[in-house]
Design brief:
The structure is a single chain. By secondary structure, the chain is an alpha/beta fold. It has a single domain, classed as 3-Layer(aba) Sandwich (Rossmann fold), CATH 3.40.50. The protein has 10 helices and 10 strands. Helix 3 runs parallel beside helix 6. The longest helix is centred in the C-terminal third of the chain and has 16 residues, at 168-183. The radius of gyration is 18 Å and the shape is globular.
């Protein structure tokens, strides 16, 4: 089943077209990545998908419904949840209070069970549960942002640059948790600066350049593509022998 379909999406800031005729699709249960240089339009695309920005033209369909004009809070209730670049934790709230905010729209009785699962996924958060969000390290804040999103029980999880600014050991831990989330059946659309890591983990990928999708395909094919290797994997033509 196709869970997300983006068709001919255009998004402008003032007179500048940041996203131009973008098409992409994600099937339920897939792990898909979107890579590209800074300023390529990746974050803008995610924001348009989750209702934080409005496209000038084109359509976003989620779970078979056109949600192009649907406010983001309604999309969250439908299971479309985003972890933003920069994490966006509430610095004055405790870790557990931050996590509880992820379940604000839920009316079921399973929140405590889900919180326990988050603590198993991120044991560091259990250790820091009474600390305020603003006192955590960058890696711990990223864990908190992902944990908060997962408490919303997403069907589609949008992740914007989860490795940005983190030490390698924290990047490893974060992506182990993302992989585990995918194995549990959550559909994932990942924007990530580390193109090699993103393509190694995702099943399919899209490449954005100057607001347009210029390449797409299976991740293995993109990893082997000379254009991707030269532009995003640090493998210039002179190094290919």
């Amino acid at each position: 089943m196709m869970l997300l379909e983006v068709r001919a999406l255009n998004v402008s800031y003032g007179g500048i077209r940041a996203v131009k005729e973008v098409d992409l699709a994600v099937q339920e249960g897939e792990f898909v990545c979107l890579i590209g240089a800074n300023g390529a339009g990746k974050t803008t695309t995610l924001k348009a998908i989750c209702g934080l920005l409005r496209g000038n033209r084109g359509a976003v369909r989620y779970d078979g419904v056109d949600v192009s004009d649907m406010p983001s809070f309604r999309l969250v209730r439908r299971g479309l949840v985003m972890v933003p670049e920069g994490r966006g934790v509430f610095p004055q709230l405790t870790v557990e209070e931050n996590l509880a905010m992820g379940a604000y729209s839920r009316a079921d009785s399973n929140v405590r069970d889900d919180l326990a699962r988050i603590y198993r996924l991120f044991p560091r958060l259990r250790e820091r549960s009474r600390q305020t969000g603003g006192t955590l390290s960058g890696g711990e804040q990223q864990m908190l942002a992902i944990g908060r999103a997962l408490l919303g029980r997403p069907r589609l999880l949008l992740l914007d640059e989860p490795s940005m600014g983190l030490a390698p050991i924290m990047v490893q831990r974060i992506f182990e948790a993302i992989q585990e989330t995918a194995r549990q059946g959550v559909t994932i659309l990942l924007v990530e600066q580390n193109a090699r890591l993103a393509l190694q983990l995702a099943t399919r990928g899209y490449v954005m350049e100057s607001g347009r999708v210029t390449l797409s395909g299976e991740s293995k094919s993109l990893l082997a593509d000379s254009r991707v290797r030269e532009a995003y994997l640090g493998e210039g033509r002179g190094e290919e022998r």
